[in-house]
Write a structure and sequence with these properties.
By secondary structure, the protein is mostly beta strands. Helices cover 7% and strands 41% of the residues.
């Protein structure tokens, strides 16, 4: 398995959090979140819609099963449910609790990680910084892409290594205590930002030759021909990622198909994270169908023309057949990507 997931500092609205019984991955960019009883075993995976008032947060953390904190700027929003946004109360962050790179909760405390400084702050209250104190981070805990906590453990998602995507569970952030390393279950990986490129293969874009027209005569020919091309989304190539997921109906209806939304996001990522760096919003994301186009050309004697269609794929599988068609007199495919650049 190769590839990289997008780190938190580049993934707006994406975060991990957890409590004793559940682990969460929040994908504000997709408008939903995943809940699982085990990232390692891939058990109890459910995907829920994220309430509009709970989207766009800088950080997400869970204190108990019914206490979630959404940090945005210098404030945080406390809610009892991420789907309904119920019982919302907004508090200011204490000045000493602002500007963290990561936030988590564990052992009935909150922890703010300042990665660049190599320290973390422990407090029992984000609003008044009660019992606030700073500690140096141990080097083994300083390279997390994401951090989250459960009742009596700290967890950090490690950069991709030879063993794939993993997270470390530890009882201390500032000592070299005994820690455990777990791999993410294959069912969880596609939901991570950049994960679809890991599970299905990195994105590619290419011009595919869909027809060739030849003139073997001695005179020019006015040629008109109907060419068949595919356009749309090869849903079955990606939808299998949901096989172990229980997706709430609201989430599916809002996104027009969760796997479709994840694929769009994957194509928008840079090549470093398995994407193509393109915006596909204006492409046809309905089930792929064949359409006909009429090609009218003047073909010179003993010449050929080639009809090309642009497609995006993952690994070796074409996933999205785009609208763009080109005609050329060369057997080599056209150069350039006919889609606008994406801003992830």
């Amino acid at each position: 398995m190769s590839g990289k997931i997008v780190p938190k500092n580049l993934a707006k609205g994406v975060d991990f959090c957890g409590v004793n019984k559940h682990y969460y991955i929040v994908r504000s960019d997709l408008g939903c979140y995943m809940r699982s009883t085990s990232f390692h075993r891939g058990e109890g995976i459910e995907v829920f819609s994220l309430h509009p008032s709970c989207r766009g947060g800088d950080h997400y953390l869970a204190f108990t099963d019914d206490q979630f904190y959404i940090i945005k700027g210098d404030q945080y929003r406390h809610v009892s449910n991420l789907t309904t946004g119920a019982d919302a109360i907004i508090y200011p962050l204490h000045p000493y609790c602002r500007g963290g790179d990561h936030y988590l909760s564990s052992f009935d405390y909150f922890y703010i990680i300042y990665q660049d400084r190599g320290v973390y702050r422990k407090t029992s209250n984000l609003c008044d910084d009660a019992e606030g104190i700073e500690y140096p981070m141990h080097p083994n805990c300083s390279d997390g892409l994401y951090y989250f906590g459960i009742d009596d453990y700290y967890c950090l998602v490690k950069p991709h290594e030879e063993w794939g995507i993993q997270y470390v569970r530890s009882t201390s952030l500032n000592t070299d205590d005994t820690s455990e390393t777990f791999s993410f279950h294959p069912s969880v990986i596609p939901f991570l930002p950049g994960g679809l490129g890991i599970s299905n293969g990195s994105a590619y874009g290419e011009w595919s030759c869909i027809d060739t027209i030849s003139n073997d005569s001695e005179t020019p020919i006015e040629w008109k021909k109907r060419v068949t091309k595919k356009i749309g989304y090869e849903k079955e190539k990606v939808s299998s990622i949901e096989n172990n997921w229980k997706v709430c109906p609201t989430c599916s209806s809002e996104t027009g198909g969760l796997s479709c939304l994840i694929a769009k996001c994957q194509f928008s990522l840079t090549t470093e994270y398995g994407g193509s760096g393109v915006n596909t919003e204006k492409e046809t994301w309905k089930e792929a169908t064949e359409i006909e186009e009429t090609i009218a050309v003047t073909l010179q004697p003993h010449r050929k023309i080639y009809v090309w269609s642009f497609q995006l794929g993952l690994g070796r599988e074409p996933v999205l057949h785009c609208r763009d068609t080109k005609i050329s007199d060369k057997a080599d495919p056209p150069t350039g990507i006919p889609l606008p650049s994406a801003r992830y």
